[in-house]
Design goal:
The protein has one domain (4-67): 434 Repressor (Amino-terminal Domain), CATH 1.10.260. The longest helix has 20 residues, at 4-23. The chain is built from five helices and no strands. The protein has 74 residues and is an all-alpha fold.
């Protein structure tokens, strides 16, 4: 179970990922294709419902054309 404090951080992180995705002009489906991560998982990340792994962050960063550390700058 995710604590309330962690949930707030995950929600902020998810909003940041969504903002980066939209700034690149990508839909969730396009990010799914580029990152090889399911659209459902991307949606869960953007809504702060799951805590993604480092491997997932690396794949999202590569698909967005940013460094993994940029995903954590929220």
């Amino acid at each position: 179970m995710i604590s309330i404090r962690d949930k707030k951080h995950l929600e902020k992180f998810g909003k940041h990922i969504r903002m980066l995705r939209l700034s690149k002009g990508l839909s969730q489906v396009q990010l799914e294709f580029e990152s090889e991560i399911s659209k459902n998982q991307i949606g869960n990340i953007e809504r702060g419902e799951i805590n993604p792994t480092i491997s997932t962050l690396k794949r999202i960063a590569k698909a967005l054309g940013v460094q993994p550390k940029d995903l954590l700058d929220f």
